[in-house]
C-alpha cells in the first residue's frame, strides 16, 4: 500500500526518467537516425483481459492555423460523432481550397501495447511494455504478415 512519501518518491523517480523516448503525447517512439528513420524491434502484445482487441484505431487532426499556432486533437469521428473540423474541411474540399483541406484532413493512427525487444540506440528501453502509436504504413505491414500463411493476397490500403 502506498503512503504519501512513497507516492512522492515514485512520482519524482518517474519525472527524472528520461531514458524512454516518447512523442509529445507520451507514446514510445524508436530513437531515430539523422535521416529521421527510427529502428526498433517490438512485439505487439495481446489485448488486456478487459479489452476486446489488441489495437485501438483513432483519427487525429494536426495542422497549423493562420496565426501559426497548431491545432492538434483527436477527431470525434473516432467515436462516430460529428466533427466540426471535418465538416469545415468538407466545405473547403468541395469549394475553394482543396490544398488547405488536404492539410487539415483527419489522419488514421493505431495504438497498441508493445514489448520493446530491441532498441539498439537505447537498450535501456528493451524489456519495457509501452504504448506505441503508428500509422497506416506499419498497419499495412501487419496486415500482410497476418494473412501471409493463408495464401491470401493482401494489398496495401489506399491512402
Ligand atoms: Zn474530424
List keywords for this structure.
159 residues; Replication Fork Single-Stranded DNA Binding Protein; alpha+beta; five-stranded antiparallel beta sheet; 26% helix; binds zinc ion
Strand content: 15-25%
Low-confidence stretches: none
Quickly give the CATH architecture: Alpha-Beta Complex
Shape: globular
* Separate helix tally: 4
Q: Nearest-angstrom radius of gyration?
A: 19 Å
- Roughly how much helix do the residues carry, as a percent range? 25-40%
CATH superfamily: Replication Fork Single-Stranded Dna Binding Protein
- Counted up, domains total 1
SSE class: alpha+beta
Order of helices and strands: HEEEHHEEH
Q: How would you state the average pLDDT, rounded? A: 83
Describe this entry's structure for a reader.
The chain has one domain (20-150): Replication Fork Single-Stranded Dna Binding Protein (Replication Fork Single-Stranded DNA Binding Protein). Strands 1, 2, 3, 4 and 5 form a five-stranded antiparallel beta sheet that branches. It has 159 residues and is α+β, with helices and mostly antiparallel strands. The termini are far apart. The model has no long low-confidence stretch (mean pLDDT 83). It has helices spanning 4-16, 84-93, 98-104, 136-146; strands spanning 41-44, 55-64, 70-74, 107-118, 129-134. Zinc ion binds at residues 61, 75, 77, 83, 85-86, 106. Residues 61, 75, 77, 83, 85-86, 106 line the site of zinc ion.
Amino acid at each position: 500500500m502506498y503512503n504519501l512519501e512513497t507516492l512522492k518518491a515514485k512520482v519524482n523517480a518517474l519525472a527524472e526518467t528520461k531514458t524512454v523516448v516518447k512523442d509529445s503525447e507520451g507514446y514510445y517512439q524508436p530513437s531515430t537516425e539523422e535521416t529521421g528513420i527510427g529502428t526498433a524491434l517490438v512485439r505487439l502484445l495481446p489485448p488486456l483481459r478487459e479489452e476486446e482487441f489488441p489495437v485501438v484505431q483513432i483519427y487525429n487532426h494536426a495542422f497549423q492555423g493562420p496565426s501559426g499556432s497548431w491545432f492538434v486533437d483527436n477527431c470525434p469521428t473516432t467515436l462516430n460523432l460529428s466533427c466540426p473540423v471535418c465538416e469545415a474541411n468538407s466545405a473547403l474540399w468541395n469549394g475553394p481550397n482543396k490544398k488547405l483541406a488536404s492539410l487539415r484532413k483527419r489522419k488514421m493512427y493505431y495504438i497498441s501495447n508493445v514489448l520493446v525487444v530491441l532498441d539498439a540506440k537505447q537498450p535501456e528501453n528493451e524489456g519495457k511494455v509501452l504504448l506505441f502509436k503508428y500509422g497506416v504504413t506499419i498497419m499495412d505491414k501487419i496486415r500482410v504478415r497476418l494473412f501471409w500463411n493463408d495464401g491470401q493476397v493482401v494489398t496495401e490500403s489506399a491512402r
